[in-house]
Amino acid sequence: MEDTKAFILFAIGEERKKHSLSRVIVSEENEIIGLTTLKHINYEQKHSHIGSWLGYQYWGRGYNESAKKEIFKIAFLDL
Fold first, then answer.
1. Fold classified for 2-78
2. Angle, alpha carbons 66-76-52 (nearest 5°)
3. pTM as predicted
4. pLDDT value for 75
5. How far apart are the first and last CA of the chain?
6. C-alpha 77 chain-centroid distance
7. So what's the pLDDT on residue 4?
């Protein structure tokens, strides 16, 4: 649990510095099942990397695809 708290605090700090943007992936049962992140955001060159993790039991069910579509909307419309 301490590792999770440390990661969350790190992610919040990176987002405040505008270095990354993270969003949790939530199941239909409102459980956190993963995360998708834009990182190394370069506003001048309009470039970033994307990464995600998702619980194995949720693979192939469209969660990752939906999460990436949503974070891309944020990237292209708001950043």
1. Aminopeptidase (3.40.630)
2. 40
3. 0.77
4. 86
5. 32
6. 16
7. 72
- 26-41: buried (b, 16+ CB within 10 Å) or exposed (e) per residue? eeeeeeebbbbbbeeb
| Length in residues, the chain | 79
Q: Which amino acid is at 36?
A: T
Q: Give dist(CA 48, CA 20) in Å, integer.
A: 8
Domain extents in the chain: 2-78
The two tokens of residue 65 are 């695809």
Phi-psi region of 24 (alpha: psi -120 to 50; beta: other; left: phi over 0): beta
Q: How far apart are CA 48 and CA 39, in angstroms?
A: 6
Q: pLDDT by residue for the chain (79 residues), tens digit each?
A: 687 778 878 888 888 888 899 998 999 999 999 999 999 999 888 889 999 989 999 999 999 999 999 999 988 887 6
